[in-house]
Design brief:
The chain is of the alpha+beta class. Helix content is 28%, strand content 26%. It has three domains: 15-100, Rossmann fold, CATH 3.40.50; 128-187, Dna Ligase, domain 1, CATH 3.30.1490.20; 191-389, D-amino Acid Aminotransferase, Chain A, domain 1 (2-Layer Sandwich). It has helices at residues 23-34, 65-74, 87-94, 103-109, 112-121, 168-177, 232-253, 287-291, 296-305, 341-344, 376-389, and strands at 15-19, 38-42, 56-58, 77-80, 98-100, 129-132, 148-152, 162-165, 183-187, 191-201, 207-209, 213-218, 221-227, 258-267, 272-278, 318-324, 350-354, 365-372. It starts with 14 loop residues before the first strand and ends in a 6-residue tail after the last helix. 43% of the residues are buried. Bound molecules: adenosine-5'-diphosphate and magnesium ion (MG). Catalyzes the ATP-dependent conversion of 5-aminoimidazole ribonucleotide (AIR) and HCO(3)- to N5-carboxyaminoimidazole ribonucleotide (N5-CAIR).
Length: 395
């Protein structure tokens, strides 16, 4: 049911299907429900963040044929919030449902080797890399990639399944440590800044692009995203159009349907390369909930229901700060305690989003904050206050 469906429409009141139960799914539920849709989530974890807010939660594995059948009976349109959903399940669902994005697009995004090959095949530059399928692939002809980063080809996220190596011996060691699964060795680049394009593409091939955010990472995890309304373009005017062109090329050539994030590295010599793509809304697009006419999750609902794409216009400058489980531990004593939300929420223009996760663990994404306002100095001051209160020491 997936391809060439440019004129379907699923009206509010109906169920929408969601594979994956994380925070992205929880925010998808909020958008879908506010338009009057019901959401059925498939995720094995009975306590997952989207299961708590969905209208119906099927707590079963993504491969469970009965669960997939139940899902396809309940809804005409299904999407994902997690790229490691088995593509076979998406294929099965696509017999009876509209599936966005397609199994093919997801299969490219969930495998770093396939992803890089695909991006390069579109004439878009990626970081220098070589694939490792077995230890014999780790040879002197990889030395030019050192110091480099070994990344597992599948299932890595938030810097997990990655390690910096400075010699081939170290590369071998890490390859064994990662369980001898397919990996890439990628050159560790000196990056001027990181940015991302979040776009939505519909079944007629129309795309809309959110304002590009500048992203700061710490330990491989996104820590903040900044989008400025005032002099937005002065930061990267000449790079902006190039990034959008590359993102569009990737989305068009995948015949992509849904929300896609393209992560970029801008190097010191202004070379723009694509780091990776995410076939779903993205952490760097969370600011769109509070700062844009329609959020990235609203757009996800629109594509999968056949509604027209919404406006991506930015209403105000925004700085998004991720809140990790570390903020639950007192810096001096290490004792677990709830952060002081009262003080944070006393600041105007600061929007808190918590994901309802039961257990705070270091480096676990627990929520995010968006600091809004057109006075950049004030906005940055507020962000600094919030960061201090949450012990976000890297801010
Ligand atoms: P993940 O799937 O965990 O997001 P990424 O490949 O996006 O993995 O890496 C996470 C972060 O690590 C990037 O956003 C960037 O900050 C840093 N990083 C990744 N690859 C490189 C590289 N080749 N050179 C320098 N920094 C990198
Ligand atoms: Mg990434």
């Amino acid at each position: 049911m997936n391809s060439s469906r440019s004129n379907f429409y699923v009206s509010p009141g109906n169920y929408l299907g969601l594979l994956g139960g994380g925070q992205l799914g929880r925010m998808f539920c909020h958008s879908a429900q506010s338009l009057g849709y019901k959401v059925v989530v498939l995720d094995p974890d009975p306590d997952c963040p989207s299961g708590m807010v969905a209208d119906y939660h099927i707590a079963a594995s993504y491969n469970d044929v009965n669960a997939l059948e139940k899902l396809s009976k309940l809804c005409r349109s299904v999407t994902i919030e997690f790229e490691n959903i088995p593509c076979n399940s998406l294929e099965i669902l696509s017999k009876d449902c509209i599936v966005t994005p397609s199994a093919h697009a997801v299969s490219v995004a969930q495998n770093r080797i396939k992803e890089k090959e695909f991006i390069q095949s579109q004439g878009v530059e990626v970081a220098p890399y070589k694939s490792i399928y077995n230890e014999k692939d780790i040879t002197e002809n990889m030395e030019y990639l050192l110091p480099g980063i070994i990344k597992v080809s599948k299932m890595g996220y938030d810097g997990k399944g990655q390690a910096i190596v400075s010699s081939l011996d170290e590369a071998r060691e890490i390859y064994y440590k990662f369980g001898e699964v397919p990996c890439i060795l990628e050159k560790n680049l000196s990056i001027n800044y990181e940015a991302s394009v979040v776009l939505a593409r519909d079944f007629s091939g129309n795309s809309v692009f959110f304002p590009i955010s500048i992203n700061i990472h710490n330990k491989g995890i996104l820590s903040s995203s900044f989008v400025r309304k005032d002099i937005d373009s002065s930061i990267y005017s000449h790079e902006k159009e190039r990034m959008i062109r590359k993102a569009k090329k990737i989305a068009d050539s995948l015949n992509y349907h849904g929300v896609l994030c393209v992560e970029f590295f801008v190097l010191n010599n202004n070379t723009i390369i694509v780091n990776e793509i995410a076939p779903r809304p993205h952490n760097s697009g969370h600011y769109t909930i509070d700062a844009c006419f329609e959020s990235q999750f609203d757009q996800q609902v629109r594509v999968m229901t056949g509604l027209p794409l919404g406006s991506t216009e930015l209403l105000t400058s925004a700085l998004m700060l991720n809140i990790l489980g570390d903020s639950w531990f007192d810096t001096d004593s290490g004792v677990l305690r709830e952060p002081n939300w009262h003080d944070i929420l006393s600041l105007s223009g600061v929007k808190l989003h918590l994901y309802g996760k039961k257990e705070a663990r270091p480096l676990r994404k627990m929520g995010h904050l968006t600091v809004l306002g057109d006075n950049i100095n004030l906005l940055e001051d507020k962000a600094r206050i919030v960061a201090t209160k949450l012990d976000l020491s890297f801010w």
